[in-house]
Amino acid sequence: MQGANMLLDEPVRLTSVLTPVKPKVFPSLTKIVGTLGPKSHSVEVIQECLTAGMAVARFDFSWMDATYHQETLNNLRKAAQNVNKLCPVMLDTLGPEIQVHNSTDGPIELKAGNHVIITPDLSKAPSSEILPIKFGDLAKAVKKGDTLFIGQYLFTGSETTSSWLEVLETSGENVECLVTNTATLAGPMFTLHVSKAHVSLPTLSDYDKEVISTWGLHNSVDIISLSHTRSAEDVRELRSFLQSHDLQDTQIYAKVENTEGLDHFDEILQEADGIIISRGDLGIDLPPEDVFISQKTAIKKCNLAGKPVIITRVVDSMIDNLRPTRAEATDVANAVLDGTDGILLGAETHRGPYPVDAVSTVGRICAEAESVYNQLVHFKKLVKHVGDPMPHEESVASSAVRTAMKVKAAAIVVFTFSGRAARLVAKYKPPMPVLAVVFPREGSDPTKWRSYGTTQARQCFAARGVYPLMASTEEAETGGLTREEYGIKLAQNYGRSVGMLKPFDRLIIFQKIGDSSVVKIIECDSS
Questions:
Q1: For residues 195 and 290, what is the distance between their CA atoms, to the nearest angstrom?
Q2: Of 185, 143, 139, 135, which Cα lies nearest the Cα of 164?
Q3: Distance (Å, rounded) from C-alpha 245 to C-alpha 240?
Q4: Where is the Pyruvate kinase C-terminal domain (predicted)?
């Protein structure tokens, strides 16, 4: 039986699900982004998350300060060194987020049917009757009948710490609302989300600029997740800011989480290096029945553009439980079958008691979905979209994937300077891993290569199936090997060490020689 995105031999597959599955040594091709926080702060837990399959570490600056995040990053570096893995750092901005700071520190009870006033008057103490916010133009942004959402965390559908408010009227700078569901607001800070309305706050806030220009610059962050991206201009503004602060190599992933972002999605996709479909706020802005089509459309557009796309909010129940629900497991698998490059875990690894289990469980679901992913259908659609005549680089990259499928290769080895060639191969979603051997450019400063090269290599981790390896021209010369011989040896050694390759497996080698790109087939050494 064949589906648009799934290849399923029904008699075999339905029987095989009853057979115990042998654990895979190598993780899924789909990448897992883990948010580090109080439950994933220590070297030991981060190391377990990396071993379980976490590929990217996310630092959420809407919570805690730079000192805390620096401690966590230092622990990440120790953990990555212990397991000998590269791990890119993703800095998540705060963006135009409206917050209620609970100065009383006590719980605030909102009762269904009662009224509550939202006010910019910060001299007021927060209570069940009045909630002060750090934003003076809310009354200008909303009208009677609009929906507001408030809670310590984004709404999951099962918690009682979030409330939906209906705007009744505005009076000066105040907004009077009807509480539609009973909830207890607990904690030092709540987030207020305005559904389907433009909030006149900058996407890149002053706080974000400060964090990026200090913590981000100090740590040479690999990726910045631009929260609440609403237009292509938002991405261009951040790009300009990064360039002015010597962070021109940092990639930008536009986080689309409202209807404004969806309205300008095509322009945003063109400017950004990758996309994050943030279904938390998006699930508030959109009716439930519209979320899935927005997700599928966005993934398809990213796939055709060859840019990584990451999905959030998939296993919310694992914030409190050891296992996801059946619906959540199916949701993860469907995202993989749609073509997502990664799954982002937020509160599951940040504050949930089972961060390692969340990573490993999602990884197993992704791997199982990948085994029935209809790669051929995606490949044909992509080739048709690229058109004829194909650009040279697209032609060679697609040929490498086609050849790898024909000969049942165990992996594709790509020699690259910037990681672009590896991402181009990954665009065609090969069913086998892509080993990106990242070399320094000829004539580059050896003292700068280690830093620059590591950045380019780590960034490859966000693309589905790409696993970067740092190459050294000096090591090749010391060993009396050509660049090609050294790169192949490096890839084979890594592949064997993680259980990806075995003797006599076939490898596809993709490299650029002069102005030409070359694809060839080799067999793994027997030793």
A1: 14
A2: 185
A3: 9
A4: 394-513
Percent of the chain residues past pLDDT 70, beyond the cut: 90
**What are the residue ranges of helices labelled H in 257-325?**
259-263, 265-271, 279-285, 288-305
- Cα 197 from chain centroid? 26
Q: Which two tokens stand for residue 29?
A: 């091709």
Q: Does residue 18 surpass a pLDDT of 80? A: no
Is 152 in the same domain as 239? no
Radius of gyration of the chain (CA): 24
Q: Are 62 and 154 in contact (CB under 8 A)?
A: no
Question: Residue 363's closest CA among 50, 84, 31, 45?
Answer: 31
* Residue 374 to residues 199, 241, 339, 430, Cα–Cα distance (Å): 42, 41, 10, 10
Do 394 and 300 share a structural domain?
A: no
Contact 73, 89 (CB under 8 A): yes
Which of 310, 304, 351 minimizes the C-alpha distance to 332?
310
Coil, strand or helix at 33: strand
Whether 3 is in a domain gets the answer no
Is 340 within a domain? yes
Tell me the residue range of the domain where 411 lies: 375-524
Identify the CA nearest to 456 among candidates 494, 425, 423.
Answer: 423
Tokens found for residue 151: 């809670």
CATH number of the domain bearing residue 165: 2.40.33.10
Number of domains composing the chain:
3
Alpha-carbon distance values, 296 to 34, 299, 301, 436 (Å): 22, 5, 9, 28
Tell me which residue of 326, 303, 442 sits closest to 382, measured CA to CA: 303
User: Element (H or E) spanning 156, and its range?
Assistant: none
For residues 455 and 418, give the distance between their C-alpha atoms in angstroms, rounded to a whole number: 9
Structure tokens at 313: 């909010």
How confident is residue 447, by pLDDT bands cut at 50, 70 and 90? low
Rounded to an integer, what is the distance from CA 19 to the centroid of its chain?
32
Which residue's structure tokens are 């380019």?
456
Of the three residues 326, 345, 371, the one that is the final residue of a domain is 371
Tell me the pTM.
0.92
- pLDDT tens-place string over residues 115-162: 999 999 999 999 999 999 989 999 999 999 999 999 866 555 555 788
DSSP sequence for 170-235: EETTEEEEEE-S-EEE-SSEEEEEETT----S-SS-HHHHHHIIIIIHHHT-SEEEETT--SHHHH
Number of residues written out for the chain: 527
CB 190 within 8 A of CB 102: yes
